[in-house]
């Protein structure tokens, strides 16, 4: 995957989080439309909130950072985007503590230890291609807050927020589904912008469409999230230019 390809996917997920808001949260028809909007084209324009107010969009990033490098780029881009106000980063899928450790080190380097981290439900996994980068980093040394119960932290963040949060989902839906089981009302008190399941062209050398990664890793979790009354935007998983 090229850098431009990665950048396009990351921009797609994050720029979609600032799309014009629907008038209400409850009872909306889910939009499972493709959305690609170049964030750079919006530079200089005031950020848009669901409420119509001008200010940073409050988001939760749910990520399986630690596999391919794209989620690392996404987190850094989020931190460098003044139009987004990150209230929580939760990890999902596989070794979620390893993923949280990567998040913690990145946040510490970025001097953003004010952002809490939530460790999602763990699953058996041996794939840790970025482990060397955190080999000497102790998660317990993170000066900010690390929630061992990441699903619970997501629920608490959504339910306590005075305005709807946007969950930017760039991994399998394991943690979000766990939060939904814990508190179904989060589906009507937040919205989701996700990269999941929308592939318009085959990846790499494939000659036909293949199952999208974030879908196939945890199909039941995705089904549970899709069945809930969420205001949801699904971004394209392939850039328009590819
Ligand atoms: Ca991901």
Would you write up a description of this structure?
It is a single chain. Strand 2 (84-91), helix 3 (96-109) and strand 3 form a beta-alpha-beta unit. Residues 1-51 have low confidence and may be disordered. This protein has seven helices and seven strands; from the N terminus they run H-E-H-E-H-E-E-H-E-H-E-H-H-E. It has 242 residues and is α/β, with parallel strands linked by helices. The chain has a seven-stranded parallel beta sheet, with helices on both faces. The protein has a single domain (3-16, 56-235), classed as Ribonucleoside hydrolase-like (Inosine-uridine Nucleoside N-ribohydrolase, Chain A, Alpha-Beta Complex), CATH 3.90.245.10. It starts with a helix and ends in a 7-residue tail after the last strand. The longest helix has 14 residues, at 96-109. It has helices at residues 3-15, 70-79, 96-109, 150-160, 174-182, 213-216, 219-227, and strands spanning 57-63, 84-91, 117-118, 146-147, 165-169, 190-195, 231-235. The structure holds calcium ion (CA). Residues 63-64, 71, 170-171 line the site of calcium ion.
Morphology: globular
Helix content: 25-40%
Q: Which value, in Å, is the CA radius of gyration?
A: 17 Å
What kind of sheet is the major sheet? 7 strands, parallel
**Which regions have little confidence, pLDDT < 50, spanning 5+ residues?**
1-51
Which distinct ligands sit in these coordinates? calcium ion
Question: N-to-C terminal Cα separation, in Å?
Answer: 11 Å
Q: How confident is the prediction overall: mean pLDDT? A: 80
Number of extended strands: 7
Number of domains: 1
- Number of helices, counting only DSSP H or I runs of 4 residues or more: 7
| Portion in strands | 5-15%
As laid out across the biggest beta sheet, the strand order is: 4-3-2-1-5-6-7
User: What's the order of the H and E elements?
Assistant: HEHEHEEHEHEHHE
| Level-1 CATH class name | Alpha Beta
Task: Spell out the CATH superfamily.
Answer: Ribonucleoside hydrolase-like
What is the fold-level CATH name, i.e. the topology? Answer: Inosine-uridine Nucleoside N-ribohydrolase, Chain A
The CATH architecture can be named as: Alpha-Beta Complex
- Computed structural class: alpha/beta
């Amino acid at each position: 995957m090229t850098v431009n390809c990665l950048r396009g996917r990351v921009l797609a997920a994050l720029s979609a989080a600032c799309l014009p808001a629907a008038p209400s949260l409850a009872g909306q028809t889910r939009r499972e439309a493709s959305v690609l909007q170049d964030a750079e084209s919006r530079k200089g324009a005031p950020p848009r909130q669901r409420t119509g107010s001008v200010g940073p969009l409050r988001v939760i990033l749910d990520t399986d950072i630690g596999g391919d490098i794209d989620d690392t780029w996404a987190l850094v881009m989020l931190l460098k985007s003044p139009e987004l106000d990150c209230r929580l980063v939760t990890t999902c899928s596989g070794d979620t503590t390893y993923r949280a450790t990567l998040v913690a080190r990145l946040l510490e380097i970025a001097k953003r230890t004010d952002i809490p981290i939530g460790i999602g439900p763990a699953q058996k996994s041996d794939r840790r291609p970025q482990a060397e980068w955190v080999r000497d980093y102790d998660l317990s040394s993170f000066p900010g807050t690390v929630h061992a119960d990441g699903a619970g932290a997501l629920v608490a963040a959504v339910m306590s927020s005075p305005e709807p949060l946007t969950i930017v989902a760039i991994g399998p839906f394991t943690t979000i589904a766990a939060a939904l089981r814990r508190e179904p009302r989060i589906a009507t008190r937040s919205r989701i912008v996700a990269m999941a399941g929308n592939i318009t062209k085959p990846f790499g050398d494939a000659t036909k469409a293949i199952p999208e990664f974030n879908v196939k890793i945890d199909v039941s979790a995705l089904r549970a999230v899709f069945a809930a009354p969420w205001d949801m935007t699904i971004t394209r998983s392939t850039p328009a230019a590819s």
